[in-house]
Structures are given as C-alpha cells and as structure tokens.
Write a structure and sequence with these properties.
By secondary structure, the protein is an alpha/beta fold. The protein folds into two domains: 103 residues, Translation factors (Elongation Factor Tu (Ef-tu), domain 3), CATH 2.40.30.10; 150 residues, Nucleotide-binding domain of ferredoxin-NADP reductase (FNR) module (Rossmann fold). Helices cover 24% and strands 29% of the residues. It contains nine helices and eleven strands. The chain has a six-stranded antiparallel β-sheet with strand order 4-3-6-1-2-5. It has a five-stranded parallel β-sheet with strand order 9-8-7-10-11, with helices on both faces. Helix 9 links the parallel strand 10 and strand 11. The structure holds flavin-adenine dinucleotide (FAD). Flavin-adenine dinucleotide binds next to strand 4, strand 5, helix 2 and strand 11.
Length: 274
C-alpha cells in the first residue's frame, strides 16, 4: 500500500524534539488521486479503540491553536500504527495543509475515540452490509481488517460508491491485499464481498447504491437473497443525503437503528458535515 518506511528519517524526527502530548509522527503517505490521500502515523500507547471509531486529528493552526477535525481510524484496533484516509478540500482549513504532510512530520491526535460504527452497537446476525461513499469507506477499512467481524458474521458485504473509478483505488487495493494476506486471508476468503459502484463514469456496476439496493441488482450481482431483518445487519457511512436515503430503505425492511447503549439492526454515521 505504501512505499517502504524510512526508519532513519523517523528516528531523526523523533530525536529532533520530544513528542508533545497530542503529537504523533507520520510514518507513510500515499496520494491516490488529486482529491484523496491516505497516511499512517505512530500510535500513542494509551490509545485503545474499537475498529470503526473516529478520533480528532489535525495540525497546529496559524494562530497557535490546534486545528482539529473528526477522522475515522481506517486501521484495525490490533494495528501498531494508525491509518487515515482523507479528502483534500482545496480551501479546507485543515486538509489544504494536511495534504502536504510527509514522513517524519508531526500531526495532532486526541486519544478519545468514539463512534457508532462498531460491532457492539449491532445485535447478532448472519450478514453484515457496510454501505459507504467517498471517504466513508474509512471506518470499514478498519472493520474489514478485524478478525472479530468474520467471527460474528458469515457474510460481509462492503459497498463503496464514488463518482470516478480512480476514487475506488484505496478500497480496491485494501481488499486485494487482504485477500492475499497470510494471516487473515484464509478466514475472510468467500466471506468478504466487495461491491464498488460508480456514478459518473462507465464501470461494471454503475449507479447509486440506493438504486442498486432498491432494484435488487445488488443481490442479483452478488448472488445473494434479498434483505431480511432477522439475519441482516447494516452499517452506513456517507453524506447526510445518502445516510437518510439508506436509513429509509433499511427501515422499510424492518431494520431498527442501534447505538452503543441500545444495539439493534443497523447503525450510521456521517462521513463529513456539510
Ligand atoms: C464522524 C466524522 C468522521 C470523519 N471522518 C473522516 C475521514 O475519515 N476522512 C476524511 O477525509 N474526512 C472525515 N471527516 C470530515 C473531516 O472532519 C473534515 O471535514 C475534512 O477533513 C475536511 O476538513 P477541512 O478543515 O479541510 O474542511 P472543512 O471546513 O471541515 O470542510 C469543508 C467542506 O468540505 C466538504 N467535505 C469535508 N470533508 C469531506 C469528506 N470527507 N468528503 C467529501 N466532502 C467533504 C464539506 O462540504 C465541508 O463543508 C469526518 C467527519 C465526521 C463528522
């Protein structure tokens, strides 16, 4: 996924100045498109999180105050580093600067994970559907690498909808690497079904996931029986509009929204505000 880490450069960065309380060091960066990049940072020893949760990360602002934004942790809870998958908003206060980070740079990270896209917020089931658009794939990039997901569910369907084919590349590479992973590859084989869809270019599966779900094409393409609230669980992470549309579809099928305190059949989280 990433160019080999230059450990000498990392050590040099750590030795330059001791890490501040909320500081972590960038260990890898990869740009996927003009609008998307992913990066890895050192993991604070005190940080415990559940796969699917988000934290606040950022940079020191020009006024010396921290400039922080919510970010889903894209790496699984067992990983010794943390990974993030980010948009580049050209005039975005944070990402106009964050997109320039390089190995050895420091970012700010608050160690208070939270979120509803966690296994604990779902009641047991047989199939888990993860619906994402754009950077909304980040929490699922964490969950699909967590063995607990495959212990709890017989089938895991990850849908990822983007405008352009190039925007799928982070998720596609991740799934491909996972299938060939010597540790987890065997346990996910046949269980993880990846369903990418594209809305603005030609592609094998075209269209909004809401349409593909409502028309039944998703199930036809994957050779799966239709939604069944007795056995199916859902997780949604996209824009506000997509989340609302998917919520209506799942609820019409009898799935009830869950939370950490009240686990149920599906959960959702906004991929961004705006
Ligand atoms: C719970 C939660 C988790 C999040 N996780 C991630 C994540 O894993 N990766 C990530 O890139 N962002 C994520 N975000 C969005 C993130 O917090 C910032 O909004 C984003 O980094 C842009 O910051 P900014 O300061 O550059 O621009 P902002 O001022 O924050 O945003 C400017 C505008 O850009 C658009 N925008 C912002 N973020 C996105 C996005 N991710 N996709 C499409 N359009 C966007 C919106 O229209 C927004 O109004 C998450 C947000 C929430 C609430």
């Amino acid at each position: 996924m990433y160019a080999q880490t230059n450990h000498a450069k990392l050590q040099e960065a750590e030795h330059q100045k001791p890490l501040g309380k909320d500081e972590q060091i960038v260990t890898a960066v990869r740009h996927w498109t003009d609008n998307l990049f992913s990066f890895r940072v050192t993991r604070p020893q005190s940080l415990r999180f559940r796969s699917g949760e988000f934290v606040m990360i950022g940079l020191e602002g020009e006024n010396g105050k921290p400039l922080l934004r919510a970010y889903s942790i894209a790496s699984p809870s067992w990983d010794e580093e943390l990974e993030f998958f980010s948009i580049k908003v050209p005039d975005g206060p944070l990402t106009s600067r964050l997109q320039k980070i390089q190995v050895g740079d420091r970012i700010l990270l608050k160690t208070k994970p939270t979120g509803t896209l966690v296994l604990d917020a779902l009641i047991p089931g047989k199939r888990l559907f993860m619906f994402s658009t754009g950077t909304g794939i980040a929490p699922f990039a964490s969950l699909i690498r967590d063995p607990e997901v495959y212990e709890k569910f017989e089938t895991v369907v990850l849908t990822h909808t983007c405008r352009q084919v190039a925007e799928l590349e982070y998720g596609r590479t991740l799934v491909e690497n996972l299938e060939n992973d010597p540790l987890i590859g065997e346990s996910i084989s046949g269980k993880l079904l990846y369903y990418p869809t594209i809305t603005q270019e030609e592609f094998q599966t075209q269209g909004r996931i809401t349409d593909l779900l409502s028309s039944g094409k998703l199930f036809e393409d994957l050779d799966l029986p239709p939604l069944n609230s007795a056995t199916d669980r859902g997780m949604i992470c996209g824009s506000m509009g997509l989340n609302n549309d998917l919520k209506a579809i799942l609820e019409a099928q009898g799935l009830v929204e869950g939370s950490n305190n009240r686990p149920a059949e599906y959960v959702l989280e906004k991929a961004f505000v705006g």
